From TrEMBL:
Keywords: Membrane, Transmembrane, Transmembrane helix. Signal peptide: none annotated. It comes from Intrasporangium oryzae NRRL B-24470. This is ABC transporter permease. Residues 1-35 are annotated as: Disordered.
Length: 283
């Protein structure tokens, strides 16, 4: 069966006349795409895997990792030749963890802000509309990067200290306090979590990076100049509250101070950042 449409064409004397052309009324239905239909959404493990690739398999992330490696290599070489290489394993471990604790949080910031600065949020939240799961996947991926960095720093410290014993003839000192090891681990992991929180909070790379580095430093400087700020800083300055961990002893009050500062600088930015991430307009 067919139907006709009427069109108008000008005749020789300028008088329009009807022209009829048949059009089919039936349309071809595309065939069913072969294969099994998905029955579940994107798994959380896959989301974490994707966020790990975003952190490390990008130009910015790759150069940050290269920069961290260069700083660590320089620090180990200095320790190896300085003072005849006579340094403890704890000194070598500190040389490998401190650069990571300072620079790795920027990787966490970029993992969040890239969704907005590079406009990939439409793809990310289109494939996984549940933004809360994406936010938690970013945090878990950042912590996994931190765990991997800690393992690598431990291995590098062992190799460097053993090399100093073998080639420099120093006396080995493998002793390290458990709280010191815990402090180094928390310093790296909390920094990464804080970076992710600041990234979610600001959704802008320059703003998040500047505030992450400047605000704690400004707080410490202000605390040294103003007495009442210094008293408050004993509870709210994360650098000061973590210092007893590296000294190898923590009292009950010091644990309370550490928990308070972590709540202010890590938990609060994460909570507010996740709330903003789930409600921000994606463009």
């Amino acid at each position: 069966m067919s139907t006709t449409t009427t069109s108008y064409a000008a005749g020789p004397a300028g008088v329009s006349k009807h022209a009829e052309s048949p059009l089919p009324t039936t349309a071809t239905v595309p065939s069913r795409i072969p294969g099994e239909r998905p029955r579940t959404g994107v798994t959380f493990a896959r989301l974490v895997h994707v966020e790990l690739r975003k952190m490390l398999d990008t130009r910015a992330g790759r150069w940050l990792v290269i920069g961290i490696g260069a700083v660590i290599a320089t620090a180990l070489v200095i320790l190896f030749f300085n003072n005849g290489g006579q340094h403890s394993f704890e000194d070598y471990l500190q040389a490998t963890t401190m650069p990571q604790a300072i620079i790795l949080p920027v990787v966490g910031i970029l993992a969040v802000t890239s969704e907005w600065s590079q406009r990939t949020g439409l793809v990310t939240f289109g494939l996984e509309p549940r933004r809360g799961r994406v936010a938690w996947a970013k945090l878990v991926a950042a912590l996994l990067v931190g765990v991997g960095a800690l393992v690598l720093s431990f291995v590098l410290a062992v190799v460097a200290h053993q090399a100093a014993i073998t080639f420099r003839g120093i006396e080995g000192d493998w002793s390290i306090a458990g709280l010191t090891l815990l402090g180094a681990s928390l310093y790296v992991l909390l920094g990464l979590a804080q970076g992710v929180g600041f990234g979610m909070l600001f959704k802008n790379t320059p703003a998040a990076v500047v505030v992450y580095f400047v605000l704690p430093t400004a707080w410490s400087i202000l605390g040294s100049l103003v007495s009442w700020v210094g008293d408050v800083g004993r509870w709210l300055d994360l650098n000061r509250t973590m210092q007893p961990l590296f000294e190898g002893s923590l009292t009950t009050e010091q644990w309370a101070r550490l928990g308070t500062s972590v709540g202010l600088w890590v938990v609060l930015p994460l909570a507010v950042g996740i709330w903003r991430l789930t409600r921000a307009e994606v463009k």
